[in-house]
Design brief:
- It is a single chain.
- The protein is of the alpha+beta class.
- It folds into 2 domains: about 140 residues, Pnp Oxidase, Chain A (Roll); about 40 residues, no CATH class.
- It has a 7-stranded antiparallel sheet, with helices on one face.
- The longest helix is centred in the C-terminal third of the chain and has 18 residues.
- About 15% of the residues are buried.
């Protein structure tokens, strides 16, 4: 594939040029931004089993990581403070290391079946407070660390993106079998996937077994 390069004649470099392409922000879109978690934001968070957290290091390298757990896994400590458990993963620690360098985070809360989402921005710290961690125990396992976020901005996001994507519409679901398995792809990208389909199935089964034993 030929490398693509952007034509500099069509690159926007100033905010004034950017805003000139769009109509003015609707008054409600500006007013809806809050600096505390009101009753509606709290109810949304308590219903949500999934969020994405956006982080960035001091060099500007950005990362977005999914977080999921039983409904209401994010603890509301007060109207300006949230706590997110950190569950076992691949130990890359991308989000956590970024937070150490740059505490600014963005959260996107999702509820299955809801087309609207909740956006929360704030400043994060990593904590090992036993009282907080114990409240996040699942299957008799307590997380090693929690991400505590001081909220600076919170607002509901409209349904357009989810409706354009038909995310919850079963008629638009795709067959996962049309692509190689996750293990197959990772091996193909790294050490090389085995040509023996039986061996590949064994590796896929091993990953499924790992999911069962290392979720918490």
């Amino acid at each position: 594939m030929t490398e693509f390069s952007v034509n500099p004649d069509f690159v926007i470099t100033e905010e004034s040029s950017l805003r000139g392409l769009f109509q003015e922000t609707h008054k409600l879109a500006a007013l809806k931004c809050q600096d505390t978690l009101d009753i509606h934001a709290q109810n949304f968070i308590r219903r949500s089993p999934f969020l994405c957290i956006g982080t960035q290091n001091m060099d500007g390298r950005a990362d977005v990581s999914p977080r999921g757990d039983p409904v209401g896994f994010v603890r509301i400590l007060d109207e300006r403070t949230l706590a997110i458990p950190d569950r076992p993963g691949n130990n890359r620690l991308d989000s956590l290391v970024n937070i150490l360098a740059n505490p600014s985070v963005g959260l996107l809360f999702v509820i299955p079946g809801f087309d609207d989402t909740l956006r929360v921005n704030g400043q994060a710290v990593l904590v090992t407070d036993p009282e907080i961690l114990e409240s996040m125990r699942v299957n008799d396992r307590t997380p090693k660390i929690a991400i505590v976020v001081k909220v600076t901005e919170v607002f509901l996001h409209c349904a357009k993106a989810f409706r354009r994507s038909h995310l919850w519409d079963p008629s638009h679901f795709q067959d996962r079998a049309e692509m190689p398995s996750l293990m197959n792809i990772i091996l193909d990208q790294t050490t090389g996937a085995p040509g023996d389909s039986a061996e590949m199935r064994k590796l896929d089964d091993g990953l499924e077994d790992e999911y069962k034993t290392t979720m918490y």
